[in-house]
């Protein structure tokens, strides 16, 4: 299959979960991909599993120095790219009364500031007519204990719309994909115990109108659709949430 033959892509947060599945789909379609992560174990596993078309790079989205270095690396190894998927993110579940400055900063440093400056640094290398896609989160219902995470992703959604307006003269399309409850190793929230993950999965299945979690592959297909197939679409979000934001009932705390 050569759907992406000759294409070049960058995927941040590409060593596990939705990012890794997206990388694999791009590689299977013939693309050359540079992917980032910061967990050394995940980086090594990705290097072993992926072929020579994958450039696996350690890069921390919370580090401005790493973002700057990433831009230089993309220019050196890929030149112009067709698709940038800014997927790196972190979620920490805690009631707003227990949020600390440190946990607030961790989430905004990656999800908002890091994503913003990654897009700024890489935009010059996106080919005219290419696409930038961000991972946000389904915006309804309001989820207790995720105030900081939800706020950081809401800001990113607004950034993407303005980026779309600023880059449209180059034909660059900017969009977001908004996952709901998705089966990933962490179920989307860092630091949960096995029992907490099981409870969150049960809750997600109950409140999602389609009565199941989505798969990482379903998110990957949506991101790639936005990046390559939706050629006359920009400044929009595609929810991948089983109808949760559109027809689901509000979550009661």
Give an overview in words.
With 253 residues, the chain is of the alpha/beta class. The chain has one domain (8-243): NAD(P)-binding Rossmann-like Domain (Rossmann fold, 3-Layer(aba) Sandwich), CATH 3.40.50. It has eight helices and nine strands. Strand 4, helix 4 (101-122) and strand 5 form a beta-alpha-beta unit. The model has no long low-confidence stretch (mean pLDDT 93).
Which helices and strands occur, and which strands form pairs?
Layout: E1 8-12, H1 17-28, E2 32-37, H2 40-49, E3 54-58, H3 64-77, E4 81-86, H4 101-122, E5 126-135, H5 147-167, E6 173-179, E7 182-183, H6 194-207, E8 214-215, H7 216-229, E9 237-240, H8 244-247
Parallel strand pairs: 1-2, 1-4, 2-3, 4-5, 5-6, 6-9, 7-8
* Continuous helix count: 8
Structural class: alpha/beta
CATH homology superfamily name: NAD(P)-binding Rossmann-like Domain
What is the strand content? 15-25%
Instruction: State the helicity in percent bands.
Output: 40-55%
Distance between the termini: 47 Å
- Sheet with the most strands, sense and barrel status: 7 strands, parallel
Keywords:
253 residues, alpha/beta, Rossmann fold, 7-stranded parallel sheet, two-stranded parallel sheet, 9 strands, 44% helix, 19% strand, globular
């Amino acid at each position: 299959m050569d759907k992406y033959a000759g294409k070049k892509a960058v995927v941040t947060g590409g060593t596990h979960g939705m990012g890794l599945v997206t990388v694999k789909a791009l590689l299977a379609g013939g693309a050359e991909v540079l992917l980032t992560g910061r967990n050394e174990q995940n980086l090594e596993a990705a290097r072993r599993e992926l072929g020579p078309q994958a450039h696996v790079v350690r890069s921390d989205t919370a580090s401005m120095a790493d973002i700057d270095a990433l831009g230089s690396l993309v220019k050196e190894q890929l030149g112009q790219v067709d698709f940038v998927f800014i997927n790196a993110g972190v979620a920490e579940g805690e009631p707003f009364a227990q949020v600390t400055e440190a946990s607030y900063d961790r989430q905004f440093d990656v999800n908002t500031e890091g994503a913003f400056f990654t897009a700024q640094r890489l935009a010059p290398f996106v080919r005219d007519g290419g696409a930038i896609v961000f991972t946000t989160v389904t915006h309804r219902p309001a989820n207790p204990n995720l105030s900081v995470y939800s706020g950081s992703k809401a800001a990113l959604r607004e950034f993407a719309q303005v980026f779309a307006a600023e880059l449209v003269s180059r034909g660059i399309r900017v969009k977001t994909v908004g996952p709901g409850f998705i089966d990933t190793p962490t179920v989307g929230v860092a630091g949960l115990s096995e029992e907490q993950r099981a409870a969150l999965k049960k809750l997600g299945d109950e409140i999602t109108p389609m009565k199941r979690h989505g798969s990482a592959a379903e998110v990957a297909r949506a991101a790639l659709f936005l990046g390559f197939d939706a050629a006359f679409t920009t400044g929009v979000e595609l929810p991948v949430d089983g109808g949760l934001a559109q027809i689901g009932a509000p979550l009661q705390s």
